[in-house]
Amino acid sequence: SISGGCFNPAVALGIDSSSTGLGFGWFFPYLVFETWGACLAACLFRCCRPDDFDETVGNSETPLGACLISEFLGTFMLVLTVGLNVLAGSKAAVFSIAASLMCMIFSLGSVSGAHLNPAVTTAVLCSGRDLISGGKAAAYMVAQTCGGIAAALTYSLMNHGRTVSLQPSASSSTGEALMGEFIFTFLLSFVVLSVATVKTPLSQYFGLAIGSCVTAGGLAIGSLSGGSLNPAVSAGLAISDVTNSGPISYLPCYVAVEILAGAAAAGVFRTIHVAEYDKA
């Protein structure tokens, strides 16, 4: 609804050429920006995967800097997709958002784990097993939140300053909205723990399972709470909406409930997946 979504100079040239009678020339700025986008992608790929370019890194743990760039980038793309879909009034927003999350998980999962959500990071931390330290988890959450806020400001810039509010729907109470956020953030966090952090993860399609949680939650409670399921999404929506005098008062409630849901998911995971804690 903004650019036509070419993403490809060949597509842009074809469309521009086929409509020559209406004018020709948009191909050239599209070519420039699409090329810039590709160059930026290559630069970020190098930043996120230094082991592919430096033999000294080898099979050692991914540097923290690369992990934080990964978490920032993945959360940025997720929140940007959320905002653009909502502002465009897309009828398939939940599928687009879930697809964005899946793409980022498959792209960045082997770098940082692709949490892309402070609630998920909380779940991984609380699940134990030395998967992430407290300090690293805190750094992840900061990167994710910064990515969410940056994305929200970006989609606002792309839509003439319009923003998306973080608040329950007019037909729902605050309690109903927060209950929905808790239940489906719990679902998302629990599925992440169960398919991506276990000893034998679903390596080929765990991204599909996780993305499907967003589809389920978005369709189920989107009309109640907006279906954030992610403190970084909540922060991005609420903070960017301040520029239009939107409410920020719901942000602490959303964040607290979502973080609590991540911790609860870890508790249930510990109870059910006993074998994951078997020292043998």
TrEMBL record:
Superkingdom, taxonomy of origin: Eukaryota
Classification via PANTHER family: AQUAPORIN NIP1-1-RELATED, AQUAPORIN NIP2-1
Family label: Belongs to the MIP/aquaporin (TC 1.A.8) family.
InterPro entries recorded: Aquaporin-like (IPR023271), Aquaporin_transptr (IPR034294), MIP (IPR000425)
Sorted UniProt keywords: Membrane, Transmembrane, Transmembrane helix, Transport
One of the record's GO cellular component terms: membrane
Record's protein name: Aquaporin
UniProt-annotated location(s): Membrane
Regions that span the bilayer: 26-45, 66-87, 93-116, 137-158, 178-198, 205-228, 248-269
Signal peptide extent: none
